Amino acid sequence: QMADPFLYDTGERSRYGCLGHEVQIEHIKAYVCRPSFFTDKAVIVVHDIFGWLFPDIRYIVDLIAGHGYITICPDFFKGTDPWKTTDHWADFADWMKTHDPMKVDKEADVVLKYLKEQCGAKKIGIVGFSWGGMAVHHLMLKNPQLTAGVSLYGRIIRDSEERYNLLNPTFFIFGEKDHTISYDQITLLEEKLKQYCKVAYKIKVYPGQVHGFAQLKPEDMKPENKPYIEEARKDMIDWIKMFI
C-alpha cells in the first residue's frame, strides 16, 4: 500500500484572525497582507492542497509580511475545490490531474503583473509548501522575474535533466521523517543541482520533522517540534532577505 500522498495531520486547528484582506486580480482571488510601511519588495506564497483559505497558509502570509514584504497568496486553484480532509485518498490522482502544480505559469504572471503595476514591487520572491513547493520548483526553472524561491517539502520533479537548471537562487527545505519524499530523492536532487545549477541553492533537512511541519501556528506546535519549525521559518526568511 502506498503512503497517502501529501498527507499531514491537519488535526484540530485553532481559529486564526487574519491581518490582511482579499482582492480580486483578473480571474484570481488572492489574500494580501502588507507591512505597515512602504516597500517595493514582495513575496508570493503558494498554498498546499488545502488551498488559499486554509488558516495555516494565511498565518504564513502574515508572518512574512511582518518582515517587511508585500505578501500575497493567490488562489492557484482558480475557484475550484481544494482538497478536503473528508476526501478519499484513492481519488487523489484524479484530483491532481485538474490541480497540476506544473500548470501555474499563467496565474503567476497575473500576480507578478499586479505586484509590479499595482503595488510598485521591484523585487519579488516566492515560497511554497508541499503542492506549492512543487509549483515553486517549477516556476524557479521557468520565470526569471522571480528573484529567489523557497520550496518547502515539494515532491521532487524528475522528468528531465533540465529540472535542475534553476534561473535564480532557490532553497529546498525538507523534513527528515516526511513519508512522501525519500532521502534518496533528496540526495539525487543534491547531486543533480551540483551538476547543472549555475545559481545559488541550498538544501536542508530538519531532524524528526514530518510533511507539513513548517506551516503550523504556534498554538498547534508540539513542544519537541517547535525549535525545528522556528528554525525552518527563520531560514526561509533569511534566504528571502539575502536576495530580496
Automatic annotation (TrEMBL):
User: What span is annotated as the signal peptide, if there is one?
Assistant: none
Its localization reads: Cytoplasm, Cytosol
Record's superkingdom?
Eukaryota
What region holds the Dienelactone hydrolase domain? 28-242
Kindly report the protein's main subcellular placement as a broad class: cytoplasm
Q: InterPro entries attached here?
A: AB_hydrolase_fold, CMBL, Dienelactn_hydro
Q: Name one GO cellular component term.
A: cytosol
Could you cite one Gene Ontology molecular function of this protein?
hydrolase activity
Q: What does the sequence similarity comment in the record state about its family?
A: Belongs to the dienelactone hydrolase family.
Name this polypeptide is given: Carboxymethylenebutenolidase homolog
